[in-house]
Design brief:
heterotrimer; A mainly alpha (298); B mainly alpha (337); C alpha+beta (583); A: 298 residues; mainly alpha; MetI-like fold; elongated; C: 583 residues; D-Maltodextrin-Binding Protein, domain 2; globular
């Protein structure tokens, strides 16, 4: 039986812990689950946004920072999503926004997940007081109201996406540390791992070859789905004034402007829909990944 | 088992102390002057005024001294006095907590009803249209920024349709019921005022929907995942093989077991909402902890910041602890270090 | 999680588990909510309205019923439907001698009263608690005669000792706007209704100072009972603030009913008011953060008055019959500060030619058009339009080419500087938007601006400690008069501008012309002479280009159409007891 409690005891909204020790046969309905339509659409959407992020400066219709038309013009043929409060093209700014939010989310997740996994693996595998210390530090970090922690960290370090990223990494790693640790604890107790140890395999070898591969599933699934959460959290921080610095076309900043010009719905629509599609895409991708790994596990 | 519980209990104050220390360090490291919320712009130029204010709030002592004074006061139940509200932080929190809890409970009702319903539906109709539509709906909730969806819902339901009231816990001309628990719904019932109960309940609807919809995504996802797990189990196939009706299989056998991890997520969403519903609270003028903590952070109101951090820590640790114990109780094979 | 099920004990075990789990969650919620005890943290023996905890409730129902149960007062009927004012409340304290904020201005003048009032033309001083006064020839001795019938809300008469107490307390608490009373040398009280104030330096505007919303007169007996003091060490010995937050002890048309911070404040009619009672018996100010939310509340009828709607949001209320929207010029302005003495954050000191170039490059009309849909005024100097000294001042013309030339002459064609600003919305203008437009305007002359958004408290602090070479802020009048502007924005002794211009507290930059004009204006009893001298000071500030007003937003008065009497007051924002319903 696994010990999923530690793993599920986090703030991560995307938590799940499939039991890798289940030994029943797979139902027919699961077989090609991961190749379903939503997953394909998700991958397409994500690829599209990545391509936009990389290539936008070659084909952007307007300058994202300069004033190009009258302010607050509704959508028209010249400006598909109209103009914002300072006369800038909303569509262009939305596309440029990918260069802010996406690298930020990737950086936060890679660093946060990476750091969390390293610490979690150490905690889970070595156990004892090392485990206790690491987990207590994780507890302390997790107990802070996330937005408060992010606010204070950015107030101390200064503005800009870089510092936001640091604040969010600090908030994120404990989640993954606990997740991985719980998985490792569960897997450690399995028969084939015990068999390997009994057969004399070194600890390192056992960790890398037997334990880790089986433990990474929930981490990968959670990480893909946390992508959207990171983007939203950055937007929320911009709302309270601690995110990117104007006139950066960051989605959070743009949505704040949209709230200012509430009745000119197009200002918020651009970044809002962008965030929505990316979050949805990553979530469906994560679910699909889960189904896929599920198939493999079983 | 008992040793485990005792061990966990002993750890709580240590973790709390850690939280307080880290909060203290962080909030004092910030490079700005907390006196700006105490003194007016012009007075900040007056060195006498500044010195007087510093002395009054104990800011003229060294950091270490301030730290120990604070810890000492904590033991006596005194969490300091807020620079902004000029009231004891403990009182501030106590007055705002019921509002946030009321909202959190209402939001969780929405999140659970929606999340469980959609999750079960999605699992049962795995990979069919209902699955995708259900997931889409709950995910939209967690991807739309709250301060925007809140305004939109207000515009539609309050201004144009007039079905629901606007921001605030009660109608703008109403007086609050006599304070017993701080929950307007309960207090009005205790006061025998049924119409006020409904008024408070109506005011809860929109913010609860906005918040709950956001959490619905996590709940439905985990319900779906664990239902899928459970539905593939041996005993479920056995039940089916024995000829049980599908609904019986789903609800009697699968559902209950699948709910356990979901309930854990619920526990943690509660902890998260209690401290994190900042933006919703500000859109709906809901005087809760979220607003308090943001204003504290913006004004560098140290005592209030630390008070909120301690609150967050306590809530989180409690939820953590209770759930851990619960799992240890129900499954004797769990070994936790 | 699920393996255990295969042991075959199936449903019974699962039932127990979900039970346990449910209980766990419930206990978490209950434990977290364990703050519901109602300890009564009442202030010290308060008398008047509300002695219970500052939540929202108990005092609310108790006195509200008496307040609204048709208390008819002495003349005519009293409107008992509460008046709701929607506002983003910046009220943190109800101690009138400590708090400084825009909301304070109308709340304090409803609960308390000043010696001197302001007529509806926003210029003329009229009697209030003082029914008459005499000023000596060199404007150093002011003798006030208190209205004989003036009483506090507990029935006791307003006496000279209360005036002495209040003014000294304001001065010695050192928190609020002490500049209003700093000139006071001595206060004498020859009899109960006469107060003689002697100033250490001539100040012809002292009467105007007394009209500001902060030197209000409190009931000294009650205040002292609850820990207040006017002694020299009041800043460390006064303990009355907590009491003031839940009680009022004034002579104004209203008394404090309840105050819930960040949520709402309720005032009810003062039963012992010594003048005609206010038409509306209960006034509630409710928190509403954004202009959009306030506009929504007006539309649904939940608010009677919305105080902070900007002109662009006001357009959405056009055509709504139940709401009246009026846009009038205001005395508030937003400015950009350029400080030659501060060198951090810029690659070239902001000297005279550079500042002039910046002044010439900004498109002021464009600012107003974009941010406020044209509903704003241009203001040449830090003295608001219509205030003494503003009459002859001319707005410099926008001249982009000339600006570029000046920059070249100054050798600053690659100028890059950091502009610090608070992430707030002031008087309908979002600072982030404002900063970005300035950035765009200056880009046209080749100047690069790095934006530095900061939370309000951080920004104000950096501004005052001379760390920002360029900043954006705002100013609202404390009373009708120009001394407040010259003493803060002019290059005179003790001004913030002189310190920032010079680079620090100890190295102020003083302009003798402004100093001379300022001193002459303060010493002169003749309004024309003061006008002339302030005009000189104003022209100096205009030419120096250190405090450049960017725009003066018009004020939008938005209220239910069945309400009358909503006006803008230069000292007090809103005069609450003039408001009445017409149906």
């Amino acid at each position: 039986m696994t010990a999923p409690s530690e793993a599920t005891l986090t703030l991560a909204p995307n938590l799940e812990v499939p039991d890798p020790t289940l030994d029943h046969a797979v139902g027919r309905r699961h077989r090609s689950a991961w190749l379903r339509v939503p997953v394909l659409i998700s991958i397409a959407v994500i690829v599209m946004w990545v391509v936009i992020a990389i290539t936008i400066s070659w084909w952007a219709p307007y300058d994202p920072i300069a004033r190009v038309a009258d302010a607050l013009e509704p959508p028209s043929w010249g400006h598909w999503l109209g103009t914002d409060g300072l006369g800038r093209d909303v569509l262009t700014r939305t596309f440029y926004g990918t260069r802010q939010s996406m690298p930020l989310a990737v950086a936060v997740l890679v660093a946060g997940v990476g750091l969390g996994c390293v610490l979690g693996a150490i905690a889970g595998f070595i156990g004892g007081w090392v485990d206790s210390v690491i987990m207590r530090i994780a507890d302390i970090t997790l107990s802070f109201p996330a937005i408060l922690l992010a606010m204070v960290v950015t107030a101390a370090l200064g503005k800009g996406l870089f510092h936001i990223a640091i604040a969010m990494i600090v908030v994120w790693w404990p989640i993954y540390a606990r997740l991985l640790r719980a998985q490792i604890l569960a897997v450690k107790a399995q028969e084939h791992v015990e068999a390997a140890r009994a057969a004399g395999a070194g600890r390192w070898r056992v960790l890398m070859i037997h334990v880790l591969p089986l433990s990474m599933t929930p981490v990968l699934v959670s990480a893909t789905m946390d992508f959207g959460v990171v983007v939203l959290l950055a937007a929320g921080l911009s709302y309270v004034g601690l995110g990117a610095v104007p006139p950066t076309p960051e989605w959070g900043l743009s949505i704040n402007e949209g709230t200012l010009y509430f009745h000119q719905w197009w200002v918020a629509a651009g970044p809002g829909i962008a965030i929505l599609t990316i979050v949805l895409a990553f979530n469906f991708l994560g679910d699909g990944l889960r189904d896929y790994l599920d198939v493999r596990m079983r | 088992m008992r040793r485990y519980i005792v061990g966990r209990i002993l750890l709580i104050p240590i973790v709390l102390l850690g939280i307080v220390t880290v909060a203290f360090i962080i909030s004092h490291v910030v490079p700005a002057n907390p006196l700006s919320s105490v003194l007016s712009q012009r007075q900040m130029d007056n060195p006498e005024a500044v010195a007087a204010a510093k002395a009054k709030y104990g800011l003229d002592k060294s950091l270490i001294q301030q730290y120990f004074i604070y810890i000492g006061n904590l033991f006596r139940g005194d969490a300091g006095t807020s620079f902004v509200t000029k009231q004891p932080v403990a009182d501030d929190i106590r007055h705002r907590l019921p509002a946030t809890i009321e909202l959190t409970i209402a939001a969780m009702v929405v999140a659970i009803a929606g999340g469980v319903g959609l999750g079960v539906l999605a699992a049962v109709r795995h990979n069919k249209l209902t699955d995708h539509a259900g997931r889409l709906f709950s995910l939209v909730g967690s991807s739309v920024p709250v301060y925007w969806s809140g305004l939109v819902l207000l515009l539609i339901f309050s201004v144009h349709l007039g079905w629901l009231p606007g921001p605030g816990r009660l109608d703008s001309r109403s007086v609050a019921p006599p304070e017993r628990t701080g929950f307007y719904t309960i207090d009005s019932l205790l006061d025998g005022d049924v119409s006020k109960f409904w008024e408070a309940a109506r005011h809860l609807v929109l913010p609860a929907i906005v918040l709950g919809w956001g959490v619905m995504g996590s709940v439905s996802r985990i319900v779906r995942a664990s239902m899928l797990d459970v539905l593939g189990q041996d005993y479920v196939r056995t039940a089916r093989a024995k000829g049980a009706r599908e609904s019986v299989v789903v609800f009697r056998h699968a559902f209950r077991n699948a709910m356990i991890p979901a309930l854990t997520i619920v526990g943690f969403s509660v902890a998260f909402l209690l401290t994190g519903a900042v933006l919703t609270e500000s859109i709906f003028s809901w005087p809760g902890i979220g607003q308090y903590s943001v204003k504290a952070a913006q004004a560098l109101d140290f005592p209030a910041i630390m008070g909120v951090c301690i609150l967050g820590g306590v809530v989180f640790l409690l939820a953590n602890f209770v759930t851990d114990i619960g799992y240890a109780l129900v499954d004797p094979r769990i070994r936790l270090s | 999680m699920t393996r255990g099920m295969t042991q075959g004990t199936g449903s019974r075990r699962s039932r127990r588990r979900s039970w346990v789990a449910g209980l766990m969650v419930l206990s978490v919620i209950v434990a977290a909510g364990c703050g519901g005890d109602d300890d009564d943290d009442s202030g010290a023996g308060g008398d008047t309205a509300g002695s219970a905890a500052g939540g929202d409730a108990t005092s609310g129902t108790d006195v509200a019923t008496t307040g609204t149960a048709g208390s008819t007062g002495s003349t005519g009927e009293v409107d008992t439907t509460p008046l709701v004012i929607a506002r983003n409340m910046d009220l943190t304290s109800l101690d009138p001698h400590r708090a400084v904020c825009d909301t304070c201005q109308f709340v304090f003048t409803s609960l308390y009263q000043t010696l001197v009032g302001l007529d509806t033309d926003n210029k003329t001083l009229i009697p209030n608690l003082a029914e008459s006064w005499e000023i000596n020839d060199d404007n150093t001795v002011y003798t006030f005669h208190l209205a004989p019938e003036a009483t506090f809300s507990d029935g006791s008469p307003v006496e000279a000792k209360d005036v002495e107490f209040s003014l000294l307390r304001l001065k010695n608490l050192k928190v609020s706007l002490t500049y209003l009373v700093d000139d006071i040398q001595t206060i004498d009280t020859p009899d109960d209704k006469t107060v003689v104030v002697t100033l250490g330096v001539p100040n012809a505007e002292f009467l105007n100072n007394m009209n500001a919303a902060y030197p209000v007169i409190v009931n000294s007996d009650v205040a002292i009972e609850n820990g207040a003091t006017d002694a020299d060490d009041a800043d460390t010995t006064d303990t009355a603030e907590a009491w003031f937050i839940q009680n009022s002890a004034g002579s104004g048309p209203y008394v404090l009913e309840s105050f819930s911070q960040g949520d709402e404040i309720t005032m009810t009619a003062n039963p012992s008011y010594w003048r005609d009672p206010a038409p509306i018996a209960t006034v509630t100010v409710k928190q509403a953060e954004t202009a959009a939310a306030q506009a929504q509340m007006l539309q649904t009828g939940e608010a009677d008055i919305a105080m902070q709607i900007d002109p662009i949001t006001a357009k959405t209320l056009e055509g709504v019959d139940s709401v009246t929207v009026e846009t009038i010029p205001s005395f508030n302005f937003l400015y950009i500060g350029l400080w030659p003495g501060i060198t951090s954050g810029t690659n070239h000191p902001l000297d005279d030619n550079v500042r002039k170039a910046i002044r010439m490059a900004i498109d002021y009309q464009g600012l107003t058009d974009t941010l406020l849909d044209g509903k704003g005024q241009q203001q040449p100097s830090p003295i608001p339009n219509g205030f003494p000294g503003s009459a002859g001042l001319k707005m410099p013309a926008t001249d982009v080419e000339g600006a570029k030339q000046l920059l070249e002459e100054a050798g600053a064609t690659d100028l890059t500087f950091t502009l610090g600003y608070p992430t707030i919305n002031a008087y309908g203008v979002d600072y982030s938007q404002l900063a970005q437009i300035i950035q765009q305007d200056l880009a046209k002359i080749g100047v690069t601006i790095e934006l530095d958004p900061q939370t309000f408290s951080v920004n104000v602090d950096q501004f005052r400690t001379s760390q920002l070479s360029a900043n954006l802020l705002y100013w609202a009048p404390d009373y009708y008069g120009s001394a407040q502007y010259v003493s803060y924005f002019g290059l005179v002794e003790g001004s913030r501008a002189s310190k920032n211009a010079g680079g620090g507290e100890d190295t102020p930059l003083i302009d003798p012309v402004t100093q001379e004009a300022y001193d002459a204006a303060r010493a002169s009893g003749s309004a024309e002479k003061r006008e002339e001298q302030y005009g000189i000071a104003g022209q100096q500030m205009l030419d120096q280009n250190m405090v450049i007003p960017l725009l003066s937003p018009d004020l939008v008065l938005a209220y239910q159409s069945n309400i009358d009497g909503v006006t803008y007051s230069a000292c007090c924002n809103l005069v609450v007891d003039q408001i009445h319903r017409t149906d």
